[in-house]
Amino acid sequence: MRIAFNPTNNNMYAVNINLQTVYVISTAPQPPVDTNPPDTTITSVVDGNNIALTKNGDSTASTEITFTFVGEDNVAVRGFECRLDSSNDGDFKPCTTPATYKNLNRGDHTFEVRALDTSGNRDPSPARFSWKILTPAEGIQEIIDTITGMNIPNSIKKDLIHPLQQALKILKDNNPDNDKIACSNLDLFLQKVNANLVEADKKITKQHDEVLIDQTNIIKNILGCPSLSPPDSENQEMEVEEEGKDKIPSTFTMDQPSILHIRGFLPLPA
Q1: C-beta atoms surrounding 89 within 10 Å
Q2: I want to staple 86 with a disulfide (CB 3.0 to 4.6 A). Which of 91, 141, 154, 244 is the partner?
């Protein structure tokens, strides 16, 4: 009888040469099996216009979205699996952070991500984020709602909302061929926003100004509107679309300077 030691697995063996048999007489202790799953957290959500979506259920007009996420585990995280707009477990695919999705359809979406650890355990409750991609009409309605909630005089609210309502009517006329007509109303709205910002009493704060302008420019990009350019110095009138019987002036002249006091277009009165 001989005793043998295997350094590969740290086992001890008894070898009977005459009987040509081998017995395991001791085994090395095995480490405990890791059954603890990792945990996953979505740390940021940013749309294609670099605007953060801060809470679950937020909305954006952008068709692009980027998620950043992390995983924690008692041993180590090996990777991640992501799923978009599905309840099928087989639709979880390997992914890395950040994960970006482009050219998404307008409507509701749900993103899920789960961490995978080095023991093969998966997060049983994936991190989830739901959001909505707005149509241009829905985006304009959100701007109207934003203005309604602002702490500014009602007369200013009414003045700002009017061109948005005109644009909304055009976008809801069930004729997509007319949608670009709304561009002039959106331009007029931007001019009014800036005019109220630069006036001496600053009826709109700089923060509100940036929010309203960013939201409007996103909608303009969706509609394919041309960039707003300064009025021709030789023709100091700016044409604005009229619709139906709504009382919108067909032109704005130098007799209405507050409309044109947007950044750099006209100097402020002394």
Answers
A1: 9
A2: 91
